[in-house]
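Our example pasted here:


***
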Amino acid sequence: MKTHMDKAVLFGLLVAANAFAKEYPLVTEGNPAAKIQMNPRPSAPEFRAAAELQDYIRKISRATVPRSTYPAVYYRTVDSAEFTEILPVTLEYGQRLMPEAMYGKLSGAASDEAFYIKTDGSRIFIVGKKPIGVLYGVYTFLEKYLGVRWFHPGDDGEYCPASKNITLAEIDDFQEPSIPGRHINCWVKSVEPWTMEEVRVWQARNKLQFGSFYQYNDKSREDLDFFECGNQLLGGGGHSTFESAVPKKLFETHPEYFPLKDGKRVCEERSQRCLANPDVQKRVVEYAVEMAAYGATFSISFHDSTFECWCQCPECMKMGTYKGKFTVSNLAHRFTSQIADQVLKRNPHALLNVNIYSVFRDLPTDPRIRYDERVEATYCPHQRCYVHRLDDPKSECNVKFFKEFIAWQKKVPKIGIFDYYAYAQSPYAPMEYTLAEDIKLYRKMKLDHWIDDCTNKEYPAMHANWQFHYVAAKMLWDASLDADRLLLAAQDQYYGAAAEPMKKYQALRRELWESATGHAAYGGPKRIAYCLADPGAEKRAIGYLDEADACAGNDAVLKRRLATDRAYLSQFWVKEAGEIRKRKAGQNDIPVREHEGKITVDGVLDEEDWRKAPLVTGFVTANGDAPIEETRVKVLYDQANWYIGVEALTEHAWSALKAQVKERDGEVWKDDSLEIFIMPPDADYHHWVINSIGTFYDAKVRTAAFDSKAEIKTSVRKDRYLIEARIPAEPMGTRIADGQTWRMHVYRACCNLQPPKTSEGSSLDGTAPHEQTLFRRAVIGKNVINNGQFAEIVDAPGKSKGIASEKFPAGWGGNQARLIPSKNNKNQVELTDCLYTGMNIPLSGQGQAINGEITLSGSGKLWVWASTCIRKPDDKRGFGHELKHEAGPYDITEKPAAHRFKFDLAPYETGSLYFRVRGKALIDSISATRTGL
């Protein structure tokens, strides 16, 4: 896109430091005043650099600056006018022309991508240490000194000023990257609606590397030249290492190459290989030597795996065992370190990478496992949170990953990070501010390379998050940049006439994102769904977009840019917020009961308190189906502890319960197990996973160093297993008190079902683990109303003319009200006037605080009041409507929203609750508890 300017001088180019500073004209009044002098034998990056420089000067000024491979002195003999000579050249070919100090600085640079832009005499040198440095130098020259920007791929992502005069002041600018390796992995489906070629061009222009596999077949010279501008030659390996070196077709003739599982050699979808087998090792070495022969980086790795796909033969178990304990990390890294040593012995210059990934991400326990200093590693922090920076001291969500990464860096100093921002279930989320803090940390830690896996085809991560990828490109090259300033300047240019309302819009998006509940991680919750929890937030956001549209006028490019923002706000934030409101509106509270007697934690659940405790059932799978096996949960409490009782039925078991994990904080979730999540008020959640033999894992968020002090016992019966847990509140930093609202969730994993479906996950409401914003509420206090979820339905009172349905919730009365029945007991009440119920308040000399909440949708206003009277035990009068406590009015919104109310009652005061609507409302649920004043 070309943006016209009414100024004669290009933005950011001119002003000399003082009156005596030399100026360097490139274009004067639309006429060329410079020439581009190329290396007579340019490499692909050098040629592209000179061509791009010429093209963009023409785009800005409409003047064609000549580009030549002839010596510049030729022009001096035939042209009388002076001109500026621009030399995009490598250190090798420019050393005889450039100043000595410039040569010394550049020749001593650590990076081959380093470049030096410097004016001298009538020349502008753009010198790269290597050809790629020339290309990056030219792109920096176009951006920093000519004002061109490439915000995202495609024509609409370009900003190009317009001026018929281009004159530069003196320049002395040496640069090399803050992070040596800078990659955004993507593929054709993940970058739509752009093409991969458009993305690669954008990456090169922003000094991001992109890979090419040198074994590509039948590529044209033009294709190969373009790939050379990506500065990353890949030699295969990774997850396909074994599929290439020891392919599945060998299983028929050499089953010994494949893993031993439950006493049998198998070749399954993600099977590793028998790593102790000498022929397997030899084949991997030969494959790696061949693939690394031409200077490409080869990645020694494994399948994207789980524990079950690793070989269990005695030799492999021995390879993975240290001091009597087997770990996958010992096995995996002993293998890869040995392979690396053998490859380097054959080819000392081989570029090798090892992945620190999945079940082999833990540090090996055997200190003898070491990597050659020439080997680089890539640490993959699955499930790290991208709301908080990696070393955030205020959040514990990433403590494990940060400590683990530091430990690995001591073992493999040349290490990078493979991040998963694009898989954090948050497209169109302003995660660039977290990224900016991460990059500053990475530079401080001397990170070797950074990769973001942007191959997620489920979300248009690159198209929806252009600001994130723009910040990544800029700050990976120069980590000293300020992200806020960088983005404000980008928004000024990108949104042009609509910049002011759009800067407010983007600031609101950031505010909503950072104040939302929960985390954002690979496979985690959709945090974007909670950004519009405030009913007015959506209206404010759309208001800014409407204002921006009005400012855009008839600018077609700007209109398209604004339409993209509006579409993604609707597609992700608004739609997901609506889905969450629907799910939460029909969600029951977890009924909790204060226990009265003594509970002995023995895994039996035979105390009277367990018999009286309310039952929590209704587990469903992720797609909403009833699970094969039923799960029943009960919850009790006292001031110091939660008591969780579980009956996990096994009536459809096909085999014995899987209970392989026997050590505390092991991978218990791989067994038949139950996961419990408890979140205190105004705090983060805590997590327990328990198998049938009582082995348990406990963590705060994902930090397993947390010790919950829990007491857990289990017992196994013929058709079920039982779990009884006492979980203290103190390690979670609080106590349990009346009036509090905690949140809880329970998830079950079954591993022993009848084939073909041998495993299944189910949970309350079908909510996934760690989806903390969808955990159910558990309100502490004595319940004062019955059937607040409208689950119990009876015949409507025969004399009631105000109820317009044959059935109605038990214990409730109303006027102009009717039942809206639904499956799963998630019934609703439609109301245009009044709904009421009695409060269960025993006469007491102590005052009571009534804390309540009503969730509804519709239009109009809502009022809530308690109609009461005071009756001491010796007062013979019947009930009378003598006192009134009122709350409201509340605005009833189109989307379901919860409204809280509170009334303080005097000693011996009792009565009923009333809910009046002026308009029309659909009520989902009502709850109220009492606590002593």
